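Pasting as-is:
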Amino acid sequence: MSLPHRISQSLLLTALLLVPRLAAQDVTVGDPVWLMDSPAPGSISELKKGLSPSYPTEMRDTDRIGYAAAVSFVSADGHALQLDIQATDPAFKKAVEINGRSLENLFQWNSRENGNSWRPSIAVVDGRPVDTFVWVPVIFNPASASVNGPNATPRLLSVVPVYVNTKFLHADGSPTPAHVRVALDASGGVVTVTPTAPDTEHFYWPTIEKAVAGWRFAPARKDGRTVAAEVEIAVLPQPFFRLTDNTDKVPVLLKSVLPIYPESMENLRLRAQVTVNFALDTRGRVDNPVVIRSTNPAFNENAILAIRQWKFTPAIHHGRPVRFIMSQQLIFEMEGQDYTNGVSAYSTGQESSDSGPRENGPPVVQNVVDPVYPYDLLRAGVAGSASERMIVDKQGRVVFVQILSASDPQFGLALAAALESFTFDPALRNGVPGFARVTYEHDFLKKDLSNSNVGDALDREETRPGSIHSSDELDQPLRPFSHSAPIFPTAWRGRVSTGTATVEFLVSKDGHVCLPRIVSASAPEFGYAAVQAVSEWLYDPPLVGGSPAVVRMRLPINFKFTQPVP
């Protein structure tokens, strides 16, 4: 019998779009900001339920100002599409997410099933309902910014979005937070705004400076008198949403399927966050869902399989359906488990499990993948290990991998290929992102390969090679429904701009890639990068004569280096 479980999603907060202004202890929920290119309504209807997060307990002894921003879309007919929650500190983001989960029964896709007819509030312009895309700030002020008492630090009262061009976004749709120092006069007015890390922020600095100049603060106090002061704060850049850029009407979610908590993980009772990127075709069907961020790869497949079943109306541009790209975060949790400390199965040599403010701290891993067991060593039954060092840049990207030790060179190359897919929340020093070195060790053990497809594939190659079909025997050509591109090896960046590899693998009866191996490569690193990528692909079951079959595939993989966004 499966254990009871709950799976929540970042989408659950969509029911909280248009909240009234709310003051709580050290927390203020601001008025929603209209993010669309169309005219804003004169007023936005008040929701029946409000957003009221609690100030994080672990932050009460700090004097750091911060805020979170919840961004979401509701169509004119009351269907929610997407939500993004960003925050200047992980503890603030967690506070908003936890508050939203308590209202999960209000989320629109389950309302009919639960017998609850509540819907998100819809904006009205000239008496007609309109699509709504809004940004809702949640401001967290420290105890030192108290409204009472003779002495106080500045208190942040209101913020507005800091719009940036979408070319400054990362692959998962998130921009790099900016860090600024704000000088205030004795009335709380902004005098100057200066970057604390100009090398990472100059790409959109004028926009940041102009926006922060319009923020409102309550002034600092000393012995009962208001005084000038300075405050440091992180800023969350927001891409401006313009329907007229490439879409006149965004898709509407018609059907969703919640992912299943993997049975193999139930005994561990872990919490996992998986973000899936996908396209919608001109019929509103999900195309090529791939994981772009995951705290535990054991949950990736179930996230992909769930998203693949979602249905939308197509995006419309100039009256015609068009392709539309979006992403969605899914959160896996077990019922009754306390996840206050963010339980994770993955750690690195320089990580911290502290869930409090990260004014100073090492990078924290946000995306992990399991390395592929080198085929020759797996076939020979050779176990081993490797230890490696990564250089993580200010955006949390791995820009260099050094093999420190490996019981066999192949283990070192295999682990390096996996580590280049890792991403992090960057290291911080006085709240400012910086470069960091991170160590990671991995043991390659045959007993860990408990996947029945791998065992079956090894047995077939050894004892039943005739049961493995060639691609020519398939009823129809085999194409993956989930396929991410390989990572260009860091060892060759700046040295060459292209590379090649040819890989061979088996596709099991249920569409999993098994036993990927390198046939040829322009350099060993390209071969291992290609094997790492295809190991995560998913296929529909291969058919031979109408029945599921195991098939051997051979594919060329081409690499082309593209300079990442700074």
